[in-house]
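Board work, copied verbatim: PCDGK protein
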Amino acid sequence: GALLVSERIDREELCGPLAPCSLSFEIVVENPLELYSGAVEIQDINDNDPVFPSSQARLEISESLAAGARFPLESAQDPDVGVNSLQTYELSANPHFALDVQTRVDGSKYAELVLEKELDREEQRELHLVLTALDGGSPPRSAQVQIHVDVLDANDNAPVFNQSTYKASVRENAPSGTLVARISAYDLDDGPNGDIIYSFSSHTPAKVRELFALDSATGELRVKGQLDYEETKLYEIYLQAKDKGVVPGVAHCKVLVEVVDVNDNTPEVTVTSVYSPVPEDAAPGTVVALLSVTDLDSHDNGLILVQVSDVNDNAPKTSQDSYDVYVPENNAPGIPILNVSATDPDLGRNAHLSYTLLQGDLTVSHLFSINRDNGTLYLLTSLDHENQVEFNMMVRVQDGGSPPLTTNVSVNVFVTDLNDNAPTVLYPHSNMNATYSNVVAPGTAAGQMVTKVVAVDADAGYNAWISYTLLEATDPSLFLVGLHSGEIVTARQLREDDPPEHTLVILLKDHGEPVLSASATVSISVAEMVKEVLTDLTDVAPTNDPRRHITFYLILAVILVSAAFFISMVSVGIFKCYKWRQSKELLNSSRSTQYRTPGPFHHIDAVRGGFMPPNFYHQVYLTTDSRQSDLLCKKPFTSSPLGSRQSTMRNGEPGMYHQIVGTASRLPTPAE
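↓ predict structure ↓
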């Protein structure tokens, strides 16, 4: 189980500037099968010296620059990482310059010369400095570069950038020539002293110069090489603007370029075989191989996605089991009244829902329709509360799976009432003769009910609540009408000087919005006896309607035909009943006399009729079938203690039997 090094390890070759540097591996242990993951971290040692791009550097600095001016220097590179990498810079002693060491975003160091004392060309035309780069190893490794400073005559104005730091982002697969950023500087001088040239600063790494190109005239920074997010995620690029004066002025800026990751690395699958070949009797669940997947991309681009195919195992689910919808009557046809909402957690076609209205009541199918795709329920026609108040239906929600799953939801539609019906007067009827309807006796006391107006309203609830008011009257002080009852009562006692005839107009109003109304006319006569009123009625000529005679004759004919039919049916029933009882008695008598001597009460007495001798008679029995009959003939007899004897002989006629019954005081002979 020991893990050994098989060859010399060079951390800089394996991982470059990345830290920490680790190599991952997997170990499979058999019997029992176990999988272990591990990683080996390659630790850095200080085996590399810092290196400057060149051994010499030259700076041209105007004598007119004030103290505090800064001049970036080329950076040294150290392939080691951590404390073994480049840690600091040192500058040889001199009276004019100091060294300022700064840290980039990625942790690397760079140095800038800071002018502490103004230069004087007449005093010293050239300076020689030594810049030393040191790493953090023990002992430290170092590198040096010779810096030659030329002191130049003054240039009044140096270029100035509109911002000191620019930020940009670019995709790692951006082709060569893609614009990254555009820097801009200005110079107040005229002529060549105001013309600006853009370039990379001296301490910009060579790797950056290989990946990016800068247009010296426009300041456009473009992609030059192939970027790789997995190698470097952020570039810190230092640029400068220099005019064309004899003693050129210089300005510096920094561009931070963020590299955006794209999914440009395919997953790498490593298969570790456990059993090869696999035995044919391997038990279910036996591990055949181990797979590990890696992807060099970052974030979502580096995930391996395992897609699980969907099975239609979820029925549609509605937000509620039933819906109650309230629709005012007299609605406009074709309006949507409900949206049945349902969801299905399945995917694709298994989650595609369709809505259908189950065919139950034919009335529902003619009045309602549902959109198959979105579940919107439409009302196809106008509803009437007075015709039907409630509709019940079932909506089926079905997914597109195979087989499909369904869910049913009940929908109850309630038709709310609107005040669309005026009160209808039942009494007095509008066609009633208004000359005489009600009679009140003279001297009737106050508070006595004379008559009542009866009305109904087809609406419901508050819309059907009727109020009654007296609109017109012959004598308004004589009668009152109940506000909610419609009862007409005397307001005071009737006097002799009151008119004999009164006409009242009653206004009936419901309580809907808007209010609908109707009116009823009531005639009241003041008379001692009804006879007086009847006398007045004789003076009124009846309305001559020629159709009333036809109606009278039609009604009379219907009555007569119905009466005749009823009498005929009753007569036939009585006759049938009588015949049935008679045939039943004859049948019972026939059956009883075939096996015994008829009793004295089961025959027709022919002696009293004078047709036969007293001691001889015939009995005739008729069956219910008229084709057969029994005839009984008896001989004279006298009482004898020896009893009676019967003898029967068959007559030659078909369907006829003769029975002779006799008695004697002696024993019969064989001849007898």
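The chain has six domains: 11-42, 56-152, 160-260, 263-279+286-308, 317-416, 424-526.
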